[in-house]
């Protein structure tokens, strides 16, 4: 166990830096996902030439959900809706590992009136996109996300004739970083047996000078942006939290697909409203008890 060594390591890091800061996540635009491809011809609608079954019947509300594959940047457009009728809604569900400002861009996004929501909050009402030739991706809206994990963009269309609302290509870019606190994380056990029957995975969280672990909202602390804390306690300026071992083992084995070897786990949370992020690497084994 690295519990005793963590204080020494932290002291060295603090003496080396002397200043604790919130660290920028990124400095330039980064493509998160793209659905479809823009076409330089007015006849080349890469999304409108596919999946006819997604044409809706006029005056009937229609809702479609498209879940972005987090492992693929350029998404297959074959299952994205061709068009919507008088009233319809498309939900795009995606994951982010960074906070900050994001920009939704488009190539030939045709409609009469659209309301765009992010996680259920209306961020824009837009009217009248042309359906002329697409030459590149253009800005549609920008919005801020202050939490990592799963989010949803919803586009709701109103009015017009059948097929008046259609999407050729959409893309999401991470436009700016926001900031985060670099936390020192120690996860125990150092070696996790996936066949073990223990109850807890313990995590020790230390923050740099200028941040107080007593101001961490334990309810915001997540392992791998998904597994919540069962309970926590502060000991000698270190926040100790417990995660359910069964949930961690299931995530490592079934989601990450790791059964042997090293795995790096991320712990996130909020301290006085500011995001903190830290990682630790443990060894995974899978051995039955004799």
Quick rundown:
The protein has 290 residues and is mainly β. Helices cover 9% and strands 51% of the residues.
Radius of gyration from the alpha-carbon trace, in angstroms: 23 Å
What portion of the residues fall into strands of 2 or more residues? over 45%
Distance between the termini: 24 Å
CATH class of the largest domain: Mainly Beta
Quick check: average pLDDT?
A: 74
Output the CATH homologous superfamily of the largest domain.
Galactose-binding domain-like
What can you see in these coordinates?
This protein has two domains: 3-24 and 180-285, Immunoglobulin-like (Sandwich), CATH 2.60.40.10; 30-174, Jelly Rolls, CATH 2.60.120.260. With 290 residues, it is mainly β. Residues 2-21 and 40-60 have low confidence and may be disordered. It is 9% helix and 51% strand. The longest helix is centred in the N-terminal third of the chain and has 15 residues, at 3-17. It has helices at residues 3-17, 245-255; strands at 22-24, 30-35, 62-67, 74-75, 83-84, 87-96, 100-118, 121-129, 138-145, 149-158, 165-174, 179-182, 184-188, 191-193, 200-206, 216-223, 227-228, 231-235, 238-244, 261-271, 274-285. Strands 2, 3, 4, 5, 6, 7, 8, 9, 10 and 11 form a ten-stranded mixed beta sheet that branches. Strands 1, 12, 14, 16, 17, 20 and 21 form a seven-stranded mixed beta sheet that branches. A four-stranded antiparallel beta sheet has the order 13-15-19-18. Strand 18 and strand 19 form a beta hairpin.
């Amino acid at each position: 166990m690295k519990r005793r060594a963590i204080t020494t390591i932290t002291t060295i890091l603090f003496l080396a830096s002397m200043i604790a800061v919130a660290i920028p996540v990124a400095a330039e635009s980064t493509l998160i996902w793209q659905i479809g491809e823009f076409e330089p011809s007015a006849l080349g609608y890469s999304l409108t030439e596919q999946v006819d079954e997604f044409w809706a019947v006029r005056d009937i509300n229609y809702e479609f959900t498209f879940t972005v594959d987090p492992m693929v940047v350029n998404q297959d457009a074959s299952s994205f809706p061709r068009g919507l009728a008088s009233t319809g809604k498309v939900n795009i569900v995606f994951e982010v590992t960074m906070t900050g400002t994001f920009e939704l861009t488009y190539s030939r996004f045709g409609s009469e009136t659209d309301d765009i929501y992010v996680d259920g909050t209306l961020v824009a009402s837009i009217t009248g996109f042309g359906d002329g030739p697409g030459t590149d991706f253009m800005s549609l809206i920008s919005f801020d996300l202050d939490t990592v994990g799963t989010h949803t963009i919803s586009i709701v269309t109103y009015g017009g004739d059948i097929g008046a609302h259609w999407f050729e290509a959409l893309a999401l870019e991470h436009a700016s970083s926001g900031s985060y606190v670099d936390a020192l994380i120690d996860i125990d056990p150092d070696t996790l047996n996936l066949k073990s029957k223990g109850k807890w995975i313990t995590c020790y969280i230390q923050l740099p000078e200028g941040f107080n672990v007593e101001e961490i909202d334990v309810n915001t602390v997540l392992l791998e942006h998904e597994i919540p804390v069962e309970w926590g306690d502060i000991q000698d300026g270190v926040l100790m939290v417990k995660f359910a071992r069964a949930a961690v083992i299931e995530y490592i084995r079934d989601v990450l697909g790791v059964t042997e070897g090293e795995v790096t786990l991320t712990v996130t949370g909020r301290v006085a409203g500011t995001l903190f992020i830290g990682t630790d690497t443990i060894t995974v084994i899978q051995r039955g008890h004799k």
